[in-house]
Design a protein that fits this description.
Helix 4 runs parallel beside helix 14, helix 8 crosses helix 9 and helix 11 crosses helix 13. It is built from 14 helices and five strands. It is globular and about 80 Å long. The longest helix is centred in the last third of the chain and has 30 residues. By secondary structure, it is mostly helical. Bound molecules: tryptophan. Tryptophan binds next to strand 1 and helix 8.
């Protein structure tokens, strides 16, 4: 699937991730990049800091989030000597390309883009004017994202369901430009959705999300992880009562982290009434700590030596830039008839 393909992923610096973010997004994104590299493809991974300023206006907070996200990806195994790892705002060509794309972006696309529509819906619910608090950055978000994708001749954009529409917009804009100039100036990107990605429930059974306060933390100490795992909802059936594992939240969460053999062991123990809630919580706790231990150490190292990360990001930008420059030149030559 990735043979000779260029795969690109952007991440917004949105604050400290939890186990659900890690298992559901970060880990699979890194794995996909490795698959692309192994298939002689290319992997681009960038931090979408221009996208972040639409919502976050405090530079200190933004900077902290940016540092965290960079360190997390490195700690989780992104190899910047193989993947091109950079910051969006280090590539000055991106906003220039965006400006050219605007001329080919129907305003109706933006009206329909779901990030904008969601903000309008929220305003309506609150009885506010439709566009209250909505800036042009949010409104035109998909065109900037199209520039992120098209600048590097991206073939494949791995996304969650919520981002499919944005990749389609990028494809439509590229198609319109190619059709207008009657030559393949831009590569048409495709999205790919990974259906195997874990959807991790939180400790109350709803989707794990910071806004629900039901997360298992990643980068806190063992005590904090233990506290969260021990708070996972259970009922008061006794251990001896045989249980259907699929009805048990601890088992549901374990699914996203355990090996098949480990999962089998917990499932059998529950079915046979040989494992109680205390046991299975400890099994989950051990698995979570085993998964995060090394990553947490690396993360702490990078946060404490951020100048090393900064250097990696600058190197990444130097690798990314020539392709963006070439795309910008192709576009300028075409639109200005040079
Ligand atoms: N919009 C993406 C998100 O919210 C982040 C993003 C920005 C992105 N530009 C991108 C993702 C380009 C893929 C490709 O998660």
């Amino acid at each position: 699937m990735f043979k000779d393909k260029k795969v690109l992923t952007g991440v917004k610096p949105t604050g400290t991730p939890h186990l659900g973010n890690y298992l559901g997004a970060i880990k699979p994104a890194i794995k996909l990049g490795q698959q692309a590299l192994e298939a002689d493809g290319k992997h681009y991974m960038f931090i979408a800091d221009y996208h972040a300023i639409n919502a976050e206006k405090d530079p200190a907070v933004l900077n902290r989030k940016l540092q965290e996200i960079a360190c997390i990806y490195l700690a989780a195994g992104l190899d910047p000597s193989r993947s091109v790892f950079y910051r969006q705002s280090d590539i000055a060509e991106i906003p220039e390309i965006t400006t050219i794309l605007y001329a080919y972006t129907p305003k109706g696309f933006m009206n329909k883009a779901h990030a904008y529509k969601a903000a309008v819906d929220k305003n309506r619910e609150a009885g506010k004017p439709d566009d209250d608090g909505i800036n042009m950055g949010l409104y035109t978000y998909p065109t900037l994202m199209a520039a992120d994708i098209l600048a590097y001749d991206t073939d494949i954009v791995p996304v969650g369901k919520d981002q499919v529409q944005h990749v389609e917009i990028a494809r439509d804009i590229a198609g319109a430009i190619n059709a207008h100039y009657n030559r393949p100036l831009l590569t048409l990107p495709e999205y790919s959705i990974d259906n195997n990605v874990a959807l991790v429930p939180g400790i109350d059974g709803r989707k794990m999300s910071k806004s629900y306060g039901n997360v298992i933390p990643l980068f806190e100490d063992d005590k904090a992880i233990k506290k969260a795992v021990y708070s996972i909802k259970t009922d008061c059936r006794p251990m001896e009562e045989p249980k259907n594992p699929d009805e048990i939240l601890v088992y549901e969460i374990y699914k996203s982290i355990a090996t098949p053999a480990q999962l089998q062991e917990m499932g059998d123990g529950l079915r046979e009434g040989k494992l109680g809630y205390g046991h299975i919580k400890n099994m989950l706790l051990d698995a979570v700590i085993a998964e995060v231990k090394e990553m947490r150490e690396k993360y702490n190292y990078y946060m404490a030596h951020y100048e090393e990360v900064e250097a990696m990001l600058e190197e990444g930008a130097a690798k990314a830039r020539p392709t963006a420059q070439a795309t910008l030149k192709r576009l300028k030559d075409a639109v200005f008839g040079r």
